[in-house]
Hints:
This protein is about 45% helix and about 15% strand. It is α+β, with helices and mostly antiparallel strands. Strands 1-2 form a two-stranded antiparallel ribbon. It starts with a helix and ends with a helix.
Amino acid sequence: MLELEQRLIAANSGITIYQAGHLVKTMYRLNCQMTISNRRMSFLLKMDELQQELYEIVCQK
C-alpha cells in the first residue's frame, strides 16, 4: 500500500488514490523572484474543496 493511500485511509477521506492523482494535475503553485530585491515568492493558487482536503492530508506530519 502506498504512503498516500495510507494517509487517505487514516484521515477517513473519501478520496481514492486515483482521484488524488487527478486532483494534483490541476493544483498549481506560482514561483517568482522579485527583480529589485531578489526576494523569492511562492503562491499556491486557489483550490477547490477536494484539492484543499488532499493538500491538508498530504501536509500533515
